[in-house]
Give the backbone structure.
Amino acid sequence: MNSFITVENKELKEKYYFLTLENGFKITVVPKASPSFHAAICCNFGGADTEYKKDGKIFTLPAGTAHFLEHKMFENEDGSDSFLDFDKFGGNANAATSFENTCYYFSCTDNFYENLDVLLKSVSSVHFSDESVDKERKIIAREITMYEDIPISTVTRNMYKSLYFSHPTVLPVSGTLETIEDITKETLFRAYNDFYVPSNLSLCICGIVDLERVANAVTRYFPDRSAKRPETVFRPEPLTVAKEQNIEHSAVASALYCIGIKCPPDSTDTLEAYRKALAMRIAISLTFGRASDFYCNNYESGLLNERFYAGYTQSRHAAHVVISGSGNEYEKITELALTELEYRKSVFFTPEQFLREKKAAYAESITVFDSDEDFTSSLAAGAHLNYDEFDCLKVLREITFDEIKAALDSIDLTNCAISVIKKG
């Protein structure tokens, strides 16, 4: 008999059941009586895991390996496609790979346990041949080429290349046309065997289900494998930028720009690290958000438009502020943005402005509970962290004015790089 623990937020009237199996596999069930069931399996293995240590040895994977493996995961032993099995049971399935993880998910209105079996079967074993890998490589190459033809993808990628020297974010999650040539059947088997171990996997389900039946199904497909996730290795990354400016020309109506400011990286799996990142996000939203003086004044003058965006991103061993948009006066926008950040360090916002921004952030955060699909994916990925969505909301309520100011003060404006794609 498996003993799930109950985690509850009485204010939101939300709860979930959680269980870690003996083999380390984590199961989360959100008991919502919705018209549809949602389920997601998350593997703590993504585009950033290109170098890792196992048994004292260092191994390297070509960029794009996690994404390539995602593509192959739904291939059955007889060469058929698992998506056809989902179709047979009325399941709508898909998968996605990020720098941090890979998620496989489905939704359905009926035949939940049959669809769950298909998902568990797909992720619990892999089947490769040289021919099928070569075939998939051509499909992924077309996907890479398609994204390379999208200017907004290129300007963002060039910003990463300008900010970082060796961090895996300089290469796309899908890899490049060159790196995927080095991905073989053996590469995929090694990546799967090293990272797709039960202790590195989590399942989240949203719907009214039999907890014991779910736990037994997971145990059946994932028998005891005591292997632990290998340690990802990141090369030392200086705080200085690799290149201050990267300008390309393409067929765009007006210039696209992406300004990055490199920040000291922090751990991503602790609540304290989340708190620091949250403080920075609120600080940037106060400075450049749609309600800010900076945005309103420059939008009214015509310098900014609806494509303007500012935010903060923190991933494993990488963190940066990003300011992006479109407009041919990108040099002026860059100057004004950096000047505004410097100004706000000495003339910070009022407590009233801080409280308004904090309430807006809280209102946006609780919307995740309105979407069964989003909540399922979030809890599946969050099972590998040391906090959950309830903890995040608690931190947001507690975060202080001084923490937001300290976050803004910590930005070193000299660690700035800009990526531009101009018409021509």
The chain has two domains: 5-232, 245-423.
